[in-house]
Amino acid sequence: MAIIDDIGKKLVKSGQDTLEKALEKAKALVEITRLGGQVADEQNALVTFYAQIGEKYYSLRKDDPDEEYSQFCDRITAGLMRIAELNTEIQRLKGMRLCPKCGAACPVDAKYCSKCGECLPLPEPAAEPDECGCGAECAADECAEAECADAECAEECAEECAGEAAECADADCGCGCDAADGAEAACADGGAECAEPACCDAGDAAN
Prior knowledge:
The model is unreliable at about 135-150 and about 170-205 (pLDDT under 50). Strands 1-2 form a two-stranded antiparallel ribbon. The radius of gyration is 47 Å and the shape is elongated. By secondary structure, the protein is an all-alpha fold. It has helices spanning about 1-60, 70-95, 140-175, 180-185, 190-205, and strands spanning about 95-100, 105. Helix 3 packs across helix 5 (about 190-205).
């Protein structure tokens, strides 16, 4: 019986030791999680402070930044401009526009900002559609001039083509040149002596 009691006591003690170790590990995991949360909080705070420092530097030196920071300032400026353009387009689609002073959204036909009372500029009139159909981004008078220039060019080209055709006809009808198709048909033998008079006769008829 004593041996059995000793074995039982050892088993109980071993179980207690195991339980105590498990509890210690659980406590350690809880503490690690708590400390990790604190680290994350500190890191987030640092990110916020870094951003505030950068924003402060940009507001003070954006027009004349140090050379090593100029590209960052340019990128921030471009990003802010892009954001403003996108917000303007969003408000336009909603039938609203942004107040240039406080940035509040106001109806497109409002004369004053409902938030700060700023006098709002009149909205720019919509651009007239391109009536000339040329597809180019130009004024109507420029398009008209372009059409006129094209017409004059077409007329000049037609006159040049007519002159070249007349010169070609004269050359075909002169003696010593290639016979015309009609002359070739009339002169079955294809002789030069027959072709030349026929060519001349054809030229006289044309004149």
